[in-house]
Amino acid sequence: MTVNEDSFTNWKNREEIAESMIPIIGKLHRERDVTVLLHSRSLVNKSVVSILKAHRFARQIAGEELSVTETLPFLQALAALDLGPSQIDIGMLAATYRSDDRGLSVAEFTAEAVAGATGENKIECREGRDVVLYGFGRIGRLVARLLIEKAGSGNGLRLRAIVVRGGGDQDIIKRASLLRRDSIHGQFQGTITVDEANNKIIANGNEIQMIYADDPAAVDYTAYGIKDAILIDNTGKWRDREGLSKHLRPGIAKVVLTAPGKGDVPNVVHGVNHDMIKPDETILSCASCTTNAIVPPLKAMADEYGVRRGHVETVHSFTNDQNLLDNYHKAERRGRSAPLNMVITETGAASAVAKALPDLDAKITGSSIRVPVPDVSIAILSLQLERETTREEVLDYLRNVSLTSPLKRQIDFISAPDAVSSDFIGSRHASIVDAGATKVDGDNAILYLWYDNEFGYSCQVIRVVQYVSGVEYPTYPAPVA
After folding, report:
1. The model scores a pTM over 0.85
2. Which residues are catalytically annotated?
3. Which label site among 97, 98, 160, 268 has the fewest CB atoms less than 10 Å from its CB?
4. Which tens digit of pLDDT belongs to each residue from 310-345?
């Protein structure tokens, strides 16, 4: 047999193993509300090839490819346990098992590692939490996709309604079509039908009521059977407490804004300061996509090296706020054609750092350039550290942060030498460290941080909503603090 045939046979064997993993992963998710991860990447509803690619990606982070032959036994061990709702990272199970010298079997080690999710310790499945979307633009539709994807066993978040301004003929059909097909993020993974008579979109079995209203005060959500819901405002029309309080109508318990909040509205970056949300807080903000991209790595660097001062320059994809062709715009420069120009503009991300990291005693400045790409941006974070270090030390540290720390869902790491912006479309991390572009000279460090300013940010929004709704389940093995 030739070498090529050996490689092909090996590939077919791995395909077969990955194929056998899919029903186990699906059953754990549907029946027990368990999300199986591989180095923070969900394996739920993934294809054979996607599972194999997730295993291969581990090579870029950990230095060697992770094999499905290594992770399958851990998945089988999980299936044999009495698990409660949780997130379990089989990549981390395999990695920690390698370094364990006690001679435990895979089943014994797995049972010990996830003990907090089994038996008397496990969280019991609870009734799902209603969610309402106010607005249905770029972020709203991606958040809707994520909510539908995460419906799982029905015990988590449930998208019940979408509120939009009244449209013309076939309004709901056109909006359903925009949910079904996206020029950047591709086709919706599932089926979508429209009940035009009752103004409902049915997506993967989830009935979503379309509500037409020009004013938040005009809606009584209880009339649609909605109760104790979290409303996600992705219009950006109201940003202070007074304006957002208009949403606190019958049926709505909390309001989450997908833009930087003003005044005393808490700006939350999941993974950094989400645990500071007060239980009785009814209004909060998820800050901006750029704030979510820079704050987690900034916190990581401050924790390890200390930060004296910094500057962030964001090279940002254009947005709906800009004009397609030159036309009047109330803001400076933004009236010029977005797909034809680089446009210097402002960013509030630097000032938002103080809200997310109040203990950071460092001045952070920032500016932004909009460029002619429709999605994915890069933040160039230049830092003066409190101690000298080396490029190798910083990269090793950030690689480990992306693998094992509490920030591993926020920070990703890539060492591919030819990575470009389109490679990060669909990334679920808030920020991806580009190892090849990183520069360190003594106490100066420059980090190049990619981020999908649409999808990655939407994932952060969902994480905040899961946390405040009480359905953010613990992750096992526990991240290293």
Report:
1. yes
2. 289
3. 98
4. 999 999 999 998 999 999 999 889 999 999 999 998
